[in-house]
Amino acid sequence: MTMTALSATAPGKIILFGEHAVVYGQPAIAVPVSIVQARAVISAIPAAPNGQVRLIAPDIHLDSLIDELPDDHPLVLAILLTAGHLGAQRLPAMQVHLSSSIPLAGGFGSSAATAIAIIRAVSAFLGRPLSNDIVSELAYRVERRQHGNPSGIDNTVVAFEQPVYFVRGQPFETLIAARPFTLVIGDSGVQSSTAAVVADVQRLHQADPESIDRAFTAIGDIVRQARGYIQAGMIDNLGELMNHNQRLLKELTISSPELDLLVEAALANGAMGAKLSGGGRGGNMIALVSPQTASRVERALIAAGAVHTWITTVAPILGPTEGLGNANNPSSGFPEIRRFIDYG
């Protein structure tokens, strides 16, 4: 028996500069993490009636017909929103198989990536692939139902697969890196509540707004410099900016002994710069490396206690571009979508 299937993928993401300060009106930069990805594979079920859609996601122990799940289940919602946008009143009988190498709840944008992989696969399976703008918009609607009031950065970075510069309440700007750059990501293994850290920083700000605003302003200046360096290909200059950003985050009590140890290990083994990434007091750190030093830094992080590590490269994606409501916002073009034949 021959069965035609289709797959689509979406990467993870990580914050490069500006976490926490972005809450107070400063800019931040997030970048895609292509070494991890979500993948949706859709195959037709010829013997089943139209409208029967089976959703299989082994990573979360899910195997159900979507009619058996609530409409606001994020994976079901991604399917239904895509069908609704395309005006498909009844979906063909199909199986949606979702897998992901993106860590859950680790600041990698896992929920946005799974939604985007499904949206891309479903729209292409229906013969009407969607633009990155629309994919991002639909994924944001899934994120909003799931998380309440998301910033929109996760769905934007993941959908466009480019670094994104953003200020809360303003249009996002995608950045084309003039030169690729390599990051080593280290997971401290310490779980931390981002909401709790944000609340603690808020209390610090209330107690001493002048000093904390000064730190936030300095972080904003770092982010603006980083944007220029990325666009100009002055990648080596990002290292010292990362180190400066980390020092400010430590002053704001956002780092932790475990993260500090990983940052120090990276710098001692050839990293050009290193800092925590995301909510802080646990979770991940990132190190800027050359291709030649990446493996050495990764080994040093493992020796210093990292429970997981990843090496990823941020590079410009050549091809057609789309905007984000701004003439200076090029996109990656449509990502991987392919048809293949399974023989069984």
Automatic annotation (TrEMBL):
Domain GHMP kinase C-terminal: start-end pairs: 230-305
Keyword Hydrolase: no
SUPFAM superfamilies linked to this entry: GHMP Kinase, C-terminal domain (SSF55060), Ribosomal protein S5 domain 2-like (SSF54211)
An example Gene Ontology biological process: isopentenyl diphosphate biosynthetic process, mevalonate pathway
GO MF annotations, alphabetized: ATP binding; mevalonate kinase activity
GHMP kinase N-terminal domain location: 85-159
Keywords: ATP-binding, Cytoplasm, Kinase, Lipid biosynthesis, Lipid metabolism, Magnesium, Nucleotide-binding, Transferase
Record bears the keyword Heme: no
Signal peptide location: none
Pathway the protein acts in: Isoprenoid biosynthesis; isopentenyl diphosphate biosynthesis via mevalonate pathway; isopentenyl diphosphate from (R)-mevalonate: step 1/3
Gene Ontology CC terms: cytosol
PANTHER family: MEVALONATE KINASE
Protein name as catalogued: Mevalonate kinase
Organism annotation: Longilinea arvoryzae
